[in-house]
Amino acid sequence: MSTDTVLGTPVTTPTTPVQRAPRAPGFAADTWNVMTRELKPLLREPATVIIAMVQPLVFLALFSPLLPDVGTGSALQWFVPGIVAMTALMGASMTGSNLMGEMVTGSHERLLVSPLSRSSLLVGRALKEVVPMLLQAAIIIAVVTPFSFDLHLGGVLVGALVLAVFSVGVGSLSFALALASKDQDWLFWTIQQTLIFPVLLLAGVLLPLDGAPGWLSFLADLNPLAYVVDAERALFNGSFALDTLLPGVAGAGVVAVLGLVVGLRAMRSSS
Amino acid sequence: MTFTQQTGPVIRTQGLTRHFTRHKSTVEAVRGLDLEISAGELVAFLGPNGAGKSTTLRMLTTLIAPTSGTAEVAGYDVVAQRRDVRRSIGYVGQGNAAGHQQRGRDELVSQARSFGMSRSAAHARTEELLDAFDLTEHADRPVAGLSGGQRRRLDIAIGLVHTPGLLFLDEPSTGLDPQNRANLQEQVRRLHAEQGTTIVLTTHYLEEADAIADRVIVIDHGLVIADDSASALKSGLGDLVTLGFADEPTAVAAAQRAGASIAGASIERTGRVVTLRAAHAADAAPGLVTDLAAAGAPATRIEVASATLDDVFLDLTGRSLRESADTATTEGAAA
């Protein structure tokens, strides 16, 4: 039995090494692999991007006509940024269900035994969320632009960037929830459904929070999505005022960092 | 690709132990396993559901950490050097390797890339495996739409994409119909014979362990209770000869005479039936019947059975593996 070097690596244990992979891909390559794998089903069936949009589109069609014109712009000008943010939240918060499916059928286990790092398994999945989010935002904006919505492309693009960061964070939290709900689907859906509407309402997505009582505006102040939505409304109006943009970027950033930290912890303890 | 000389053990465990705590009670799934498996072996872990086979496999493949004890796989520690272990092994789990929303071809390429194969090498290997496992025409369909047998073939293809020198298969044939099970066993045997791949699989099918493994490790309640080739395990137990007689006094006389003529036989008599178990009893049976007839105790019925692995398990544990497996499955289905 030999204890000499194999492939230049000192062998510290006396069992015989078997043939191994030619070279280890780094974090970036692994993450790209995971992300493109996650995007394949969407690429093969692009229509699935609609699933997370059903509710936002219903609100857009049946709720926005009831809104009185707010301030300077049309009701739609005020409502659309919130609906785009709502779509991002819906899509990213549901994305853990795909992982849960893979945990049940076995492909998640296969990936855990593959050389892919735990961090790339989480980050690759989370980054993938950006793609459906952008598609959904583009669809909504394409739908509303013929109506009383003024398109400010620069602002919309920066707004999409902020939402991309937010989606990565929410997606990571959703994966963490999926991993924690192993073998208990109901747990995932109960928590996701319980949280989503309070978060939306406390962000002023459906109705303005201007006249809210003190306790309600206190809760809204704690909601990162509220800052993101405020920033989106300014950006979609073509305003880059830093006093709304920066809190929005910070809100999205906080969610992203929190999501990645919690998500990584969950992925590392997954088995 | 680099091939290294394969001489010593590829797997070594020392005191490998895993406990699970559920509802405040501790289950000792694997208890102090000491094991060595050499390069080129084809080993089956055989035991009823819940015996600790899969838990052992999950520790060896880095999915779960041991509670205590150590395991080295392909030269690496399964706790301290997990990623090195993962790069060195192939793994086919109980579930499906391919995501049900995915296409088989995409999954093969992705798996190959995760092992650092170049894009062109990954695609070439994918086509090779699709062809070898007769999956080419199903490669671009959603995995959810494939049959159970097609999905299992895809699982194995994914496990083999980087031509691992050491392959783990966890219950590879569970849920397959007899035809697909036979095909799978043939593929495993061929892989072992043609590539010299070291293969470790778990099974609760006696016939499967008997048919394909060079070495059978019988596990029960988290302990290794036997470890040998299937034929050695069976011949150690000996053949079972059952003789029927016209009446009880004849049977009593026959039992005595048989005991004297076959050394080391264990003999039991129930009414008019005498059962005799001894090594090579099948060879001795014709002579014994002639001898008994000459002595005035002619047998009216004879049945000769070689030992099966179930007999081995029954002998070791006092339970039938077939029954334990069935019971466990029924309980599992009811739960």
UniProtKB/TrEMBL annotation, chain A:
Transmembrane segments: 47-66, 78-100, 130-149, 155-179, 186-209, 245-264
Keyword annotations of the record: Membrane, Transmembrane, Transmembrane helix
ABC transmembrane type-2 domain ranges (all copies): 43-270
Gene Ontology annotations for the cellular component aspect, listed alphabetically: ATP-binding cassette (ABC) transporter complex
Ranges for region Disordered: 1-23
Bias type Low complexity, positions: 1-18
Principal place of residence: membrane
Molecular function, one GO term: ABC-type transporter activity
Coiled coil (residue ranges): none
Bilayer topology annotation: Multi-pass membrane protein
Subcellular location: Membrane
Protein name as it appears in the record: Unannotated protein
TrEMBL record, chain B:
Keywords: ATP-binding, Nucleotide-binding, Transport
Annotated InterPro entries: AAA+_ATPase, ABC_transporter-like_ATP-bd, ABC_transporter-like_CS, ABC_transporter_ATP-binding, P-loop_NTPase
GO molecular function, one term: ATP binding
UniProt-listed Pfam families: ABC_tran
UniProt-listed PROSITE patterns: ABC_TRANSPORTER_1, ABC_TRANSPORTER_2
Chain ranges of the ABC transporter domain: 11-246
PANTHER family: ABC TRANSPORTER ATP-BINDING PROTEIN (PTHR42711), DOXORUBICIN RESISTANCE ATP-BINDING PROTEIN DRRA (PTHR42711:SF19)
Listed name of the protein: Unannotated protein
